[in-house]
Amino acid sequence: MKRLMFVFPHPDDESFACGGTLAKCSEAGQETCLICVTSGCRGRSGPFALDSREALARHREQELAKAAHFLGITRLELYRYPDGGLAEVDPRELAGRLASAIVEWKPHVVVTFPPDGVTGHPDHIAVCRATGMAVEQAEQVLPPDDWPDLYFVSIPHYYDHCPDKGPAPAVPITGKVDITRYRDRKGEALRAHQSQVYSVNRAYPGVMEGDYGVIGCYEYYTLVRSGGRPVKPVAPENGIPVMEW
């Protein structure tokens, strides 16, 4: 049975970036592990009157658990590092913890944000760096047959409905997953993050009201490491190919 590990800094990152892919993997009988590095205690609270960051963190963890249920996530791990402070965390420490999880669970695929973090968020960038280090550390322990492939996820349409723009793409996209049949599941997962209504409305207007028409039919990835070696991504000449895991 194929196992896929997704590593993101905040509750809701999984639904924005990979919700359809996670749901598709679940229906295919694959095991999925989501590692959420912070609990999002510095995010917005939306319509909820929460009186402390600790209360917001617990609330967002509950929302994440609900989203994970919609997406069929097999294993959810919460690391509870400081939200907004991952750039100050020793990347070797975080990488070591992630490497231990990789060695223990032996995923075939590891997915995280690209070096620009999609939005330029410092937490996203820090998790990208630590995850890359973790995969390399795990390769020092695991036999070659257990080395995972490392992919970056991109959200090329994230800013389509936003007045502002994100950073220039850090890497070219090399593959896309068809999530046409799983757009509703992605939408339900996004709706589970009610405290993040502002962010959801910016990227996916209408979703919080149950209209999933704005959700695209593909999610996008870049293979950057395989077989213990870095892979130099090259933009496809004839369109982005559909990939399967």
UniProtKB/TrEMBL annotation:
It comes from the Bacteria. InterPro entries: GlcNAc_PI_deacetylase-related (IPR003737), LmbE-like_dom_sf (IPR024078). GO terms for molecular function: hydrolase activity, acting on carbon-nitrogen (but not peptide) bonds, in linear amides. It holds the Pfam family PIG-L. PANTHER family: N-ACETYLGLUCOSAMINYL-PHOSPHATIDYLINOSITOL DE-N-ACETYLASE, N-ACETYLGLUCOSAMINYL-PHOSPHATIDYLINOSITOL DE-N-ACETYLASE-RELATED. This is PIG-L family deacetylase. It comes from Brevibacillus thermoruber.
